[in-house]
Write a structure and sequence with these properties.
Layout lengths: L4 H7 L4 H7 L6 H9 L6 H11 L17 E6 L2 E3 L16 E6 L11 E7 L10 E6 L3 E11 L2 E5 L8 E4 L4 E8 L3
Parallel strand pairs: 1-3
Antiparallel strand pairs: 1-2, 3-4, 4-9, 5-6, 5-9, 6-7, 7-8
Amino acid sequence: MINSIRAVRRAKGLTLEEVALRCDPPTTAQTIGRLETGTRTLSLGWMNRIAKALAVDAAELVRLPQDTQLRITALLGADGAYAPTRPEQALTARATEDMIAVRVASSVGDYRAGDEIWCRRMEGDWSSALNRDLLVPRPAGRYVFARLLNVDGEKLHLLPPGTGQRQQVVGNPPWAAVAVRLIRNL
């Protein structure tokens, strides 16, 4: 069975040992690792124990063939949006193909550390995203995550969410992604 235990565990920032100790009864990190990789059979009992340890629904640990894996495209922090240094998956895998995700690395504006912002890619007609938060690509793997204030021809006038941030202008971006869903763990 293909499972998402590793992706969920990493998204929550937990080690194998931490998950093993959270299981009831506790188990070993080696056992959790074997269940993640499929070298040990993942029974329904194990799935329920691990789901409880990760504080998720057991269905989130099963990856079905038709599920779309939502990849974290950018991380958002006090210094702005930037590309992750290693591949990361969103907390849940129930997204459409035109979605990308931004994980908030440190609290900024209305967003808290750990939030995921799901964005729908769009091209061309930027005016439909006025007064909405956008992720816009910049050269060299950089991004701008900001509120779209104005569209002036091919120029987007953007205001980042942090206090004291200056308006930025991006000319003729190849695409942008408008924020459509906020995923926040309580």
